[in-house]
Amino acid sequence: MSQDGAQDADAESVARLRAEIEELRLRLGEAEETIRAIRHGEVDAFVVAAGADADAEDDRVITLETAEHPYRRLVEAMHQAALTVAADGTILYANRAFARAVLRPSEAILGRPVGDLIAEAGRPTLAEVLARGAGARGEVLLLRGDGESLPVRVATGEPAGEGVACLIITDLTDQRRLAEVVAAETLSRSILEQAVDAIVVGDPGGTLIRAGVAVRRLCGRDPRGLGFDEAFPLIRRGGAAGSPFVLPISRVISGETVRGVEVSLTAAEGARGRDLDLLLSVGPLKDVEGIVVGFVATLTDVTELRRAEEALREADRRKDEFLATLAHELRNPLSAIANAARVARLAPDEASGRGWALDVVDRQGRQLAHLVDDLLDVSRISLGKIELRKEALDARVVVERAAQAVRPQLAAKSQALDLALDEGPLPVDADPTRLEQVLVNLLANASKYTDASGRIAIVARAEGGRATLRVEDDGIGIAPGDLGRIFELFGQVDDSIARSHGGLGIGLTLVRRLVELHGGDVAAESAGLGRGSAFTVRLPLAREAAEAPAPAVAAPPSRPPAGGRILLVDDNVDGVSGLARLLRERGFDVRTAHDGPAALAAAEADLPAVAVLDIGLPGMDGYELAARLRGRFGGRVALYAVSGYGREEDVRRAKQAGFDGYLVKPVDVDMLLQSLPTAAAPRAGR
Ligand code: ADP
After folding, report:
1. Best CA proximity match to 426, nearest among 308, 561, 537
2. Closest CA to 71 of 90, 47, 93
3. Rounded Cα distance, 72 and 168, in Å
4. Residue 498 Cα, ligand 1 centroid: separation in angstroms?
5. Starting at the edge strand that comes first in sequence, how are the strands of the sheet with 455-463 ordered?
6. How many CB atoms lie within 10 A of CB 251?
7. Nearest 5 degrees, angle CA 96-CA 101-CA 102?
8. CA 532, 534, 536 angle in degrees (round to 5)?
9. Which of 16, 189, 560, 578 could be 678's S-S partner, Cβ–Cβ 3.0 to 4.6 Å?
10. On the CB side of 576, how many CA atoms lie within 13 Å of its CA?
11. What is the pLDDT of residue 47?
12. What is the pLDDT of residue 560?
């Protein structure tokens, strides 16, 4: 090596040494600074790298236990858990409360990513809290060392340095438990307060400790602190009726239940002041371990239910009574008719005897028909199946018509009928037939409950915007106590009196319901027994006067031109032959048949203009017969249905089956003639 070469090499190594010295000096400076920082308490922990090829996770974080800052002591003494976390989520510091909370030693906490200690679902919350910085908070589950999880709130405090977050962690277990307790208490309170039934809870000694609003309403005071029997002086109903009910407290506490005992409670002062019917059930109250800690009693108010039951029983009783009355009312005209028939048979040639018998049959038959009509009407109204055919009319006209209708009945008892009608019209919007029915019922009652030669009056006038129709009599009168019930269905003042007058106790029910259907009302007055009665119907006056008042008496049916043939089909041979005779007398050509096939044959032989078919025929019924006649003869024959039922749906069904008209039994010859079309006119006008 040359000298120059040796000098160069020296210079190089001097330079390298200098550089090394410079670097060592820098490191020394850093180390001194670190030591100074440690000495001054500016460092809490340091990370010792595990080596170049080891995982960053194996780095060790060493906490400087000797760091004795006042804030550290404070943080360690804190009941709340606290952490400092590096920007990448590594836990730099955890206080003892945190270690206790997660049941892990500090070594297992420090240097780990904080996310590892949080249940997965909470990690986004944590990330958000960290990102939002000081003051942010969220709720997450901490994963404890024993595998359980702990509900906590994490909140960020002021940053503990550049990129170092400080987290304060609050255990929510107690708060949750408290919330659950509060919720349970709130629930039980609202059950007690809002239950419809009265619920009380008592202790094993029988003293009431909880009671809701329904209970306070029942006994008129707050029963807490009172014994059950003192708060509820109950009387037994049903079996051991009348004796006081004493709660068998010891039996209940030993596990027995008392179910649905019927008791009554005289409502205390401050309560609604009436006797209540209650259903009582009592059972033991157990805690979660099944130990009896008291009892629960429920009191259900069944007063209304009992009242409804009583009303049903009363209705049932009245129905039985009604059936007895009905049998009686039906038997009277039937036996009169049977007797009349015997008289006629005994004296076939004696005109006066026969005439008398026929009058009886006619009158009693009408009476029967009237009864049945009333019955059907009541049932139709009850079922809401009556349709009013309202029209603008003058109520005075209907009054006159009703007066005409009852004159024969009044004449039979030599009773006088006075009419006092307003001068001007009484325009009402009403169904003329139904309104007449109302007045006829009232007038017939007035006659029925007034002695022979008594006086009956109808006063019709406009009063306070209403048409007032008043029927007065000077008859037997009504006791004040009975005024209320005579309008009830089957309501009769006294069975013996009512029966002696005949009647079913439905007339006034019909009157009231029909009047109500018209938007009006009806009231009864009487000064007492023996002092006459007055019934007042009030209907709304129509604004405009009825333009053309209906004629006072219905016009007789126009007599159509001659030439009709009628086929009557009914399996009641007597009924149909009587009707056939009456029609023949009036000039009709009448054929009869008693079943479907015979009717078809008769129609085939001589096509009638009108066929009147009973619906309830044996075998082929009236509907089927009608369909066949229609199918065979089309519109050349008019079809009329006859049935015992006058219900709307029967009429509708008949229309659907192709009938042109519908008649309800018993079919009266005049009624039939009024309904028939001109095609069925008699051969010769009479
Ligand atoms: P019915 O006359 O068939 O018994 P109602 O319903 O027409 O039935 O009448 C009910 C009851 O009202 C009658 O039983 C009768 O006691 C009483 N009543 C009705 N109208 C009069 C009246 N004008 N005078 C006295 N009592 C009457």
Report:
1. 537
2. 93
3. 14
4. 7
5. 416-421, 455-463, 466-473, 533-540, 521-526
6. 13
7. 105
8. 180
9. 560
10. 21
11. 63
12. 35
676/666 Cα distance (integer angstroms): 16
Query: Residue 430: its pLDDT value, please?
Result: 93
CA-nearest residue for atom 12, ligand 1, is 486
Q: Which two tokens stand for residue 659?
A: 């009938």
Note the pLDDT of residue 270. 46
Tokens of 424: 């001007």
| 466-473 and 455-463 strand pairing | antiparallel
Reported as a single tens digit per residue, the pLDDT across 538-573 is 999 987 544 444 433 333 333 333 347 999 999 887
Q: Is the CB of 325 under 6 A from ligand 1?
A: no
C-alpha of residue 512 to centroid of ligand 1, in Å: 13
Q: How far is CA 554 from CA 167, 389, 400, 551, in A?
A: 103, 16, 11, 6
Ligand 1 mutation pick, 438, 445, 472, 474, max ligand atoms within 8 A of CB: 445
475 lines ligand 1 (CB under 6 A): yes
- Note the pLDDT of residue 571: 85
Atom in ligand 1 nearest the alpha carbon of residue 473? 23
Strand, helix or coil for residue 557: coil
Q: What is the pTM of this model?
A: 0.47
Cβ–ligand 1 distance for 337 under 6 Å, the answer: no
List the one residue out of 446, 453, 458 whose CA is nearest residue 501: 446
The answer to whether 136 and 155 are in contact (CB under 8 A) is yes
For 460, the 3-state DSSP assignment is strand
The burial of 440, by beta-carbon neighbours within 10 Å (0-12 exposed, 13-18 middle, 19 or more buried), is given as: buried
Q: CB of 161 within 8 A of CB of 76?
A: no
Q: Which atom of ligand 1 has the smallest separation from the CA of 471?
A: 23
Nearest atom of ligand 1 to the alpha carbon of 475: 24
684 within 8 A of 665, measured Cβ to Cβ: no
Q: Are 451 and 532 in contact (CB under 8 A)?
A: no
Give 344-374 pLDDT, tens digit per residue.
887 767 777 788 888 888 888 888 887 888 8
Q: Which residues of the chain have pLDDT under 50?
A: 54, 67-68, 270-271, 495-499, 545-563, 679, 683-686
Q: Atom 8 of ligand 1 has which residue's CA nearest to it?
A: 505
Helix, strand, coil proportions of the chain in percent (round to 5)?
45, 25, 30
CA 446 to ligand 1: nearest atom: 23
Q: How many of the other CB atoms lie within 10 Å of CB of 602?
A: 18
Question: SS3 for 47?
Answer: strand
Alpha helices in 55-135, H assignment, sequence order: 70-77, 96-102, 123-132
Alpha helices in 537-659 (DSSP H): 573-585, 596-605, 622-633, 648-656
Q: Is 503 in the pocket of ligand 1 (CB under 6 A)?
A: yes
Torsion of CA 668, 674, 678, 680, to 10 degrees: 0
Residues facing residue 47 across a β-bridge? 61
Structure tokens at 177: 């438990």
459: β partners: 420, 470
522 lines ligand 1 (CB under 6 A): no
What is the C-alpha to C-alpha distance for residues 269 and 263, in angstroms, rounded to an integer?
A: 19
Sign (positive/negative) of CA torsion 357, 360, 364, 369?
positive
Q: Is the bond preceding 233 in cis, omega lying within 30 degrees of 0?
A: no
d(CA 476, ligand 1 centre) in Å: 10
Q: What is the largest CA-CA distance in the chain?
A: 188
Region class of 14: left (phi > 0), else alpha (psi between -120 and 50), else beta:
alpha
Six-digit token pair at 410?
């009044």
Q: Which residues, at least 6 apart from 358, have a Cβ–Cβ distance to it below 8 Å?
A: 340, 344
SS3 (DSSP) at 345: helix
- What is the Cα–Cα distance from 447 to 501, expressed in whole angstroms? 10
pLDDT the model gives residue 185: 81
| Token reading at 321 | 């009574």
